[in-house]
Amino acid sequence: MSDTQNDAKHLETLDRDLQRFSHLETATQYVARPMVAPGIALAFIVVTALAAAVFFGEFPINFVVIAATVFGAYMALNIGANDVANNMGPAVGANALTLGGAITIAAIFETLGALLAGGDVVSTISSGIIDPVTVADTQVFIWAMMAALISAALWINLATWIGAPVSTTHSVVGGVMGAGIAAAGLAAVNWSTMSAIAASWVISPVLGGVIAALFLALIKSRIIYREDKIAAARRWVPILIGIMVGAFATYLAMKGLKRVVKIDLGTAVTIGLMMGVISWLVTIPLIKRQSQGLENRNKSLKVLFGAPLVISAALLSFAHGANDVANAVGPLAAIVHAAEFGSVTEQVSIPLWVMIVGAFGISFGLFLFGPKLIRMVGSQITKLNPMRAYCVALSAAFTVIVASWLGLPVSSTHIAVGGVFGVGFFREWDAERRLRNNKVAKPLELRIAPEERRRRKLVRRSHFMTIIAAWVITVPAAALVSALVFLALNSLPA
Question: Which positions, given as ranges, span the membrane (predicted)?
Answer without folding.
Answer: 35-55, 61-80, 92-117, 140-160, 172-191, 197-216, 236-254, 260-282, 303-322, 350-369, 389-406, 412-429, 464-489
